[in-house]
Amino acid sequence: MFMSTPRTVLVTGGNRGIGFAIAETFLAQGHRVAVTARSGTGPTGSLTVTADVTDGESLDSAIAEVEAALGPIEVLVANAGITKDTLLLRMSDEDFEDVINTNLVGVFRVTKRCIKSMLKAKFGRIIMISSVVGLYGSPGQVNYASSKAALVGFARSLTRELGSRGITTNVVAPGFINTDMTKALPEDQQQQYLSSIPAGRFAEPSEVASAVAWLASDESGYISGAVIPVDGGLGMGH
What we know:
Layout: E1 8-12, H1 17-28, E2 32-37, E3 47-50, H2 56-70, E4 75-78, H3 93-121, E5 124-129, H4 133-136, H5 142-162, E6 167-174, H6 180-183, H7 187-195, H8 205-215, E7 227-230
């Protein structure tokens, strides 16, 4: 469907949820797929490497393992992220710093390490998984929203640095997705969220994965610095 050329793909946090679905989609398209995970494994057919995006040494080892097994990384999907939700008045310094360190600095760490092989090949696709919350805002998520909004500036700055080298950098901003975390919400809270989504439903992880796969494809080579919302109209492109 997309990207007929087989590529080596690395998905961070590919052991569950959206990351798992992204890895599955790339595998179904015939690509060589590796995922990073602190625990658990990626989908059958993928290479799982143990790594923590807050630990540069673990990323060095993981990336070396991936490239030894599958070849130079050509597509990076920076998906790993955490939340520590609470109102700002109750948010500790650690609550803020931990989320920034994983969701933003973690993307910096893995991207910096992966672009070396992309520069040599004069080809690369970098897709950062943000959130509708990053531009729409959400009470109790100052730390998370800040980390996800920052990815837009990161991607656009990197586009200006690497755009002439055959490397694109884009952002996908999912809205509410049917994951275990969403399903665990109380029914009345789910209904409240649904009422604010023009599409009237939550997205499936595979719908986010399809957008990522398209941005990684050969056909999307002239798209860079873009933010693609997958949110059913919730954010209206904010």
